[in-house]
Amino acid sequence: MVFWLFCWDVVKSEILGLFREFYLHGTFQRSLNSTFLVLIPKKEGAKDLSNFRPISLVGSVYKLLAKVLTNRLKLMMGEVISDSQQAFVQGRQILDVVLIASEAFDSRLEDNTSGLLLKMDI
Q: Where are the domains of the chain?
């Protein structure tokens, strides 16, 4: 991101044009999503594949687009996703659902009440 901040005045029109194309057509050049896999040796003179560490290099324009979309979607996720959905929404935690289910189960056991507990996340 430092590159984009430092060079924004130079690349601004190109990047905004690319974002505009994506917004209007819903597609972008396939090469923007290309990933290059590079093997970095863990030690000098490495010859065996287990002595290499794979690193994926993703284009920074794609990362920038993903970051912008993520930040925009965060603002409206709470309105689009129902209140019962707990995972992957800022301010909500899936652990809350687990705790509620555990308490419901314990309550049934304490009261010696028969029945069925069902939690569906559709």
A: 2-80, 82-122
